[in-house]
Amino acid sequence: MAQLTVEGFATVVVDPDKRLVLAIEQDAHVDVLHACGGNARCTTCRVEFIEGEPDRMTVAEQQVLAARGLTGVRLSCQILCDHDMTVRAISRLEGSGRPDPGPTPASEITPPAVWISK
After folding, report:
1. Is residue 101 part of a domain?
2. Is residue 16 part of a domain?
């Protein structure tokens, strides 16, 4: 089991290999956005790591971050909670003006994960 801390919220224990976006929303009860449904397209699920940043990422995450020129952030939809981590949720429903956070992401990483070293 991994411990997840979202800055400003209580630390929670998360099932092994749960997607970070789902752990933030379902376990930590933080209103993180996921407008594309967790498919590595929109970047609304981005987080900033305070501790425990994974040393690998999916090709899809690398490509979308590079295409948008984003640095210092990661896509929570492309990360597994396989170790303890502390993150800052950047894009939240509160204050976004959106009617909802987006479609609920699937339990498995989509598109299918192709892992590379960060």
Report:
1. no
2. yes
DSSP-derived secondary structure for the chain:
-EEEEETTS--EEE-TT-BHHHIIIIIS---B--TTSSSSSS-TTEEEEEE---SEEEHHHHHHHHHHT--S-EEGGG-B--S-EEEEE-SBSTTT--SSS-SPPPSS-SSPP-EEE-
- Cα–Cα distance between 118 and 107 in angstroms, integer? 23
- Has this prediction a pTM greater than 0.70? yes
In terms of residue numbers, what domain contains 19? 2-96+109-117
Give a yes or no: residue 6 inside a domain: yes
- How many domains in the chain? 1
Alpha-carbon distance of 36 to 102, in angstroms, equals 6
56-102 pLDDT, tens digit each? 999 999 999 999 999 999 999 999 999 999 999 999 999 999 999 99
Peptide bond into 112 cis (omega under 30): no
CATH code of residue 68: 3.10.20.30
